Amino acid sequence: MTKINVFDPLRLRAVFGAxxxxxxxxxxxxxxxxxxxxxxxxxxxxLEPALVSIRVAHGSRTWAVLRGAPxxxxxxxSAGQERAGRQLGTRGVDRFAGLDWRTTTDGAVLLDGASxxxxxxxxxxxxxxxxxxxxxxxxxLDADGDVRPLVFHASRFHRLQA
Length: 162
Ligand SMILES: Cc1cc2nc3c(=O)[nH]c(=O)nc-3n(C[C@H](O)[C@H](O)[C@H](O)COP(=O)(O)O)c2cc1C
Prior knowledge:
By secondary structure, this protein is mainly beta. It is built from three helices and twelve strands; from the N terminus they run αβββββαβαββββββ. It has helices at 9-16, 61-66, 82-87; strands spanning 21-22, 24-30, 33-39, 43-46, 51-57, 72-76, 101-103, 109-111, 116-128, 131-143, 150-153, 156-159. It is globular. Bound molecules: flavin mononucleotide (FMN). Flavin mononucleotide binds next to β3, β5, α2 and α3.
């Protein structure tokens, strides 16, 4: 049996946060309103079929609703979208206030100005500790190679240097 180590949460966050990532917003229209979360855990998984994944905390109230949506929009945030990244990751605020967004015909919500976007649906969910690994099938996608991404590292937002 695997020995389970328990670490100080601050130490875990410091070490896990040493790995830089981008920031995505995963969102859908539910009962006519956009709902979504910020997710820095986005990663590509498979080319054929096209699959990506995010990891979502079991405590996420928004995910409990979002996971029932037929399609999920994944917007890979651009350098200028720090506000969106922060807002969509904050409880008790109007997460889409002041943001420009659009929907696909199937109800995926995408943020305008993102550096890339994917229209997805849930393919598989795997329990992993206090998170779920969520595998998403990709139905459509596009990227603007001229738009720089937002970077998340050590719990802070950063921009790539030219
Ligand atoms: C930059 C950033 C990245 C985040 N990445 C994740 C993530 O990958 N997985 C996750 O479960 N929550 C992540 N969060 C937290 C969620 O966006 C959100 O705050 C959380 O789901 C709590 O709100 P909820 O209970 O309404 O879902 C992130 C937050 C921020 C600000």
